[in-house]
Please model this.
Amino acid sequence: MSRQVSPLLTDLYQLNMIQAYLDCGETQDATFELFVRKLPSRRQFLLAAGLEQALEYLENIRFAPEDIDWLAKTGKFKQNLLDYLRSFEFTGEVHAMKEGTIFFGNEPILRITAPLPQAQLVETRLINLLQFQTLIATKASRIVLAAPGKLLVDFGLRRAHGSEAGLLAARASYICGFAGTATVLAEKEFGIPTYGTMAHSYVQAHDNEMTAFEHFARSRPNQPTLLIDSYDTLKAAHKVVALSKKLKSDGITIGAVRIDSGDVITLSRQVRQILDAGGVPDIKIFVSGGLEEDSISSIVAAAAPIDGFGVGTTLTTSSDAPSLDCAYKLEEYGGRARRKRSAGKVTWPGSKQVFRKIAGNGRMAGDTLARVDETVDGEPLIHPVMSAGKRLSAPPTLTQIREHAARELERLPPPLRKLDTTAYYNVTVSPALTRLADEVDRWLIKQEHVL
Amino acid sequence: MSRQVSPLLTDLYQLNMIQAYLDCGETQDATFELFVRKLPSRRQFLLAAGLEQALEYLENIRFAPEDIDWLAKTGKFKQNLLDYLRSFEFTGEVHAMKEGTIFFGNEPILRITAPLPQAQLVETRLINLLQFQTLIATKASRIVLAAPGKLLVDFGLRRAHGSEAGLLAARASYICGFAGTATVLAEKEFGIPTYGTMAHSYVQAHDNEMTAFEHFARSRPNQPTLLIDSYDTLKAAHKVVALSKKLKSDGITIGAVRIDSGDVITLSRQVRQILDAGGVPDIKIFVSGGLEEDSISSIVAAAAPIDGFGVGTTLTTSSDAPSLDCAYKLEEYGGRARRKRSAGKVTWPGSKQVFRKIAGNGRMAGDTLARVDETVDGEPLIHPVMSAGKRLSAPPTLTQIREHAARELERLPPPLRKLDTTAYYNVTVSPALTRLADEVDRWLIKQEHVL
Model:
C-alpha cells in the first residue's frame, strides 16, 4: 500500500482558513498542541503511538500538479492559495513524547510550531494518525496486562476500519507487547512477526476432517496449528492425537490446536487432557473468537490451559471505546498565548511541558503540566524531534519502541494496571501555567470576547 | 491516495491454506458467501455498501514482482505457491445485492464462485471493505432517519480509523442521504459535495473575534459559515448581526453560524432570536460537536431552530457498534454443499438467494432465505455482477446508489425506522434450504465429523 496519502486528505475548512490567512497576511508562527481531553471510561492511562507515521507525513507532504489542477477546477480558491500549495512544504518545529510513553488527559503528546497556514493544514491527518494508533496501543496494553506470559496475536485486519487501520493496528499492538499479527503486509512493511493457522473453510472443503489436518500438516510441516472446532472439538482433538503419531515417523510435529468457539475454558481443559493422555503434551492450545481483555482475564484467572490468544475485532476497533477525545489546539500565535473558552472545552494556553516524577520503587508518582520554560521536579516527557521540517535523528526501531512501552507499563502504579479501578493518576497544573491562563482570560475580557 | 492496496493486505493463513490447496490439487470451484450473522444491538436493519470497492479490488488484484521476491525471502513458501501468485488473477463469478439495499442477519450480500485458492485469498480484504462501509452506511441511515429535512454533513475524518476509513465513510454516509462531507479528497475521488466552515484556531489567532469574522467573510465571500462559540456564543451572534450590516454594502451575505459546544437547543433559540431581531433571518444555524442520532432526534423533537448538523466521530466510527459480525463462509466445494457446526456459528449451506415480499403499501413485508435454484414469492435481491473476473456492466453512479438507498429507507416498515424498537423484520428459511441443511448434517455424521 502507498504509505503516503494525498494532501487532499484534509478538511475543507483547512483550505478555507488558509485562503483567508494568505489574503490577510496572517502567516506568523503558530504553536498547536495535540492532546486528549478526557479519557474514555475504562481507560486509566493512554499509550502514545503513531509518531513515526506523523513525522513521515510531515516530511513528505507535497501537492502534485494534478492536485493543484483539480483544486483550481473546483473554482473555490484563488490563485494565491493555489500558488502557495504548489510549493508547499512543512518547515516547522516538532516536539513530541516518544512512542510507547504513557500519558494522561490534557497532556500534549505533540507540539507543532510553524507558519500558521502550515500548522493548520496538517491538523486533520495528524489527529487521524495519532488518535488511531494511540487508541489501539492503549487497548492492546490492557490486553497485554490481562495476559501475562501468554502469546498474543492480532487477528483483526478483516474487521478493522479499512486497509490503513488494519495495517497500523498490527503496528500499534506489536509496540505494546503483542507477539505479532496475522496481517502479511505488516511483516513486509514493519518487520512484525506473522502468525497463521487455517480457516474453517479449509476443513470444510475436505470430505473428512482428518484428511484436512493431514494435508495441511504435510504441506506446512513447520509446527502447524490445526483448527479443531469446525464440527466437534473433542473428536477433532482425538484426531490430532492419532495424526501426531502417524506424522512422527515423517519428522512432522504439530505445533498447536486452535479453538475458535464454545466455552473455551472447559474445552481447553478437555482438549489438554486428551492431548496429554494421547502422549502429545507439547502441542499447545491457542484460542480465538470475540476475545477481549475481560474474557482473557477470566480465562487466565481460571488457569485454563491456554497458551495463546488471537484477538481480532475488539483490538483493531477498540470496540468498547472506539475513539479518543483528541484535539489539536492553537496555544500561541504572534507571540501571544491563546486559549478557547468554549463550554466544556476550555484549553490550557501556551507551549507546555509534562514533568513526571518517579518514586523510589521505580513507579510513576505524578505528573505536572507546566509552561515549557519552567523547571519543575521530574523528568520532561516532550522532546524535540523535528526542526525546519527535518527529523533530528533516525527513527527508533520498532524493537526500541517496544522496549520503551514495556518499561512504561512496568512503571505504571499497580492500581492503574487493573482493568477496572476507581484509582486515578495525579496530574497537577503548575502555578505558572495557571497564572498564564488567568492572564489570557484577562486579555480576552479586555478584547471584549467574554461577557 | 492509492485506491488499490497491496495483495499482501491479507491474513497469513490464506497463504498457508493456498500452499496446502496447491500441494494437494484442491483447486476446484468453491462458493463462499459473505453475510452478517447477528445484528448489533440497536440495529434493526443493515444497509449494504462497499460493493464498488470490492469489485474494483477483485478486478485489479495482482502481485508485483517485489511482492513475490519478498514472499520468497521469508522462506515460508514453496516455489509452486510463488509461481501461482506471480500470475494470480481473479477469474471467478460474483453475485451481490445492489449497494444501498437493506438486508438482515444471515442474508448473503455477496457470493463468490471461483477456484478454491482464489476465493480463499480474497476473503480478508472483501470483509475489510464490505464490513466497514456497511457499518457506516447503517449508522448514517439511522442519523438520516432521525433528521428529516435537515442538512447533514460528515465531519469525521480526523477520528476515523486511518485514511481509508475517513475517505470511505464519506462515501458510505453520502449514499444514505448525507448532503456531503468535510473531506476534500472525497470530492476529488467520488464527486461528493464538500462543506467547510472555520476552526476555533482561526478565531483564536485573531486578537479580536469580530476581525476574525470579517477577514474570513471577505476572503470567503460565498455564503460563509462563521463559528461563534469560541468565547461567548451570544455575544458572537450580536457581532454577526453587526458584521452582516457592514458587509451588505459590499454584496457579501453570511450564510450560517456554527455552534460547536454547550446546550445547543437553548443556544440555537437564543441565537435565532438575536439574528431575527437583528434583521438577518436568512442566516442559518448549523451545529456540531459529539452529535449522534439520539441527540439529533432530541433536538428535532424539541423543534430547535437548527438547519443542519455536522456529525463526526460517532458516524465514522459507528461508535455505539463499531463492528458487524461479518463472515465469509464456504457454502459449496466440489459440487457439494458445506456448513460448519461450530457452537453458536452454524451456517446455512449451499448457494442462496434472498426473496423479498413487498406489501400493497409499498413496504417490505418479509424475506425468505432460499436455495439459489428455488422459485419463491418475492423479488430476488442477489444479482450477477461479475463473470470470469470482469464486471457485467458499468458501475452505477453514486447518485443512482443514493436514490436506491433512499427508496429502500422509504420501503422500511415504520416500526423499523425508529431508533429503538423491539420490532423485528421477518426472515424465514425456505423448506428446501432447511432440507439441504439436514442433508449436509446427515453427511457430516456419516463422515464421522459429528459425534
